[in-house]
Amino acid sequence: MASSGSGYDLSASTFSPDGRIFQVEYATKAVENAGTVLGIKCSNGVVLGVANPVHHKMVVATTGSYKRIHTCDTHVGVASTGFLPDSRVLVQRTVEEAADWTEQYGGKIPPHVLANRLGSYVHYFTLHGALRPFGAAAVIAGYDEDIKECSLHLLEPNGAPYKFYGVATGKGKQAAKTELETLNLHRTPIAADEAVKQVMRILHLLHKEQKDSKPIQVEVSWICEASGWKHQGVPKDILKTSEEWAKEQLEEEDDDDDDDDEMEEES
Question: 60 in helix, strand or coil?
């Protein structure tokens, strides 16, 4: 009974005999079936990227209904995925927390404090039977003015705010994590402009590997010296150059794979 969730998934406040909270797991599953979100901590900033599947060809994908990256303060950006209405609530809460800190203390909220506050808020929704967990996850990028450093946090439906060098969530997150690990970001951080290229390459790679995939709308933003340490969208000319580079890299990889297959057949 415990493995199927029967009888133990009626409330987020109920543990199964093996220590699982099924409603939180269901919320996590909703995130895994949604658009891909990437984040990279760079040597000179932080980069966020989102691939939104366009569900209907008549939709204007640049409208707010498809927007997944939001500026919640001048120094904070949030990329969300999962159930869209839940994501909007998280974004609004982020804006309120940042504004409340500024009003009380007269400065910008440190990113790690913001992540912890949001984590407590999300976790509260896993403690009461009258509530349900958020079916959304958020990647928080921010710049700490006190220590002059950027940071990257992942907030999951269970309310745990983790700090990362590189992070992926949403559909295809395992493949994206594998690609991020090959960059060795924890040892040799890359520059922000290079991170934009890598984000583009990974997002297009995942889209290419997915069967029956729908068209995607890609959003990329950054906080770095080029943006004045403010959260902004990456300029269109850089996005265009990065996307062209990413597609060329993927084509070269495909050609190499074809050559390897031909050599194996000949041998």
Answer: coil
CA distance 50 to 40: 12
Contacts of 118 by beta carbon, 8 Å cutoff, 6+ apart: 90, 93, 94, 97, 138, 140, 155, 161
Q: Average the pLDDT over 118-134 and give the result.
A: 93
Helices (H) and strands (E) in the chain, counts: 6, 10
* Residue range 211-259, pLDDT digits in tens: 666 788 899 999 999 999 999 999 999 999 999 999 999 998 877 665 5
Phi and psi based region of residue 50 (left: phi greater than 0; alpha: psi -120 to 50; beta: remaining)? beta
Beta strands in 14-165 (DSSP E): 36-42, 45-53, 69-73, 76-82, 136-144, 149-155, 161-163
Predicted confidence (pLDDT) at residue 101 exceeds the cutoff of 90 = yes
Closest CA to 79 of 52, 122, 49, 102: 49
Token pair for 57: 């060809």
**pTM: predicted TM-score of the whole model, two decimal places:** 0.90
Name the region of 19 (left: φ>0; alpha: ψ -120 to 50; beta: rest): left
* Predicted pLDDT at 265: 59
